[in-house]
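Please, structure for the following, as tokens.
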Amino acid sequence: MIDLHTHTLFSDGELIPSELARRAKDIGYRAIAFTDHVDFSNMSFVLDNLKKAVDGLEKYFGLYVFYGVEITHVPPQLIGEAIGKAKALGAQVVVVHGESPVEPVASGTNRAAIEACCDILAHPGLIEPDDAQLAAENGVYLEISARGGHSFTNGHVFRMARQFNVRYMLNTDTHSPSNLITKRFAEVVLKGCGMNDGEVKLAFRYAEEMLEKLLRRRYDEKNN
């Protein structure tokens, strides 16, 4: 499993980073990203604290660990600025909380996130065709969510991804230990939104591509 959308107690998750990483490793994870909820008020605090844990966890637990953010309920007009600030503060992965059907996310959030080139647009709900097409052009991944509620529109998200050749990946949006999933269960979620076996394999391949992108980004930052 490569899971690039999880939460620790630095937002509304239940676990400290160490326990979350250990539990993920124990069920077979290869990579995990801590992407706690942020706006302008807590972004520096969250990133400063998450980055303290990453190197040690990666070295001693034996999985890739990244620190990042999920920009959440920020007005669409400010999302580009928020993404820029997160990157300037060193976020290794930038997720934006998309227009989930189970939360009152402001209309226009999906578009603003895609225009500003976030890495992953989380649970984008009933994403519009024009936005899906732009996501393909800008290299933004659409999330297939394993989290209850957010997952209600997985089928639509996948149809848009298929139609416009957008990269997609499964993330758990983990908040508690029970939200972590095995690769076998991930396959169930992916097939449940309408994928055939080849498209399930492609989802895992796209996740591998994103992992390689993050590793190259990390290498470039350390060597420049």
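The domain at 2-223 is CATH 3.20.20.140 (TIM Barrel). Strands lie at 2-6, 31-38, 64-71, 93-97, 120-122, 141-145, 168-171.
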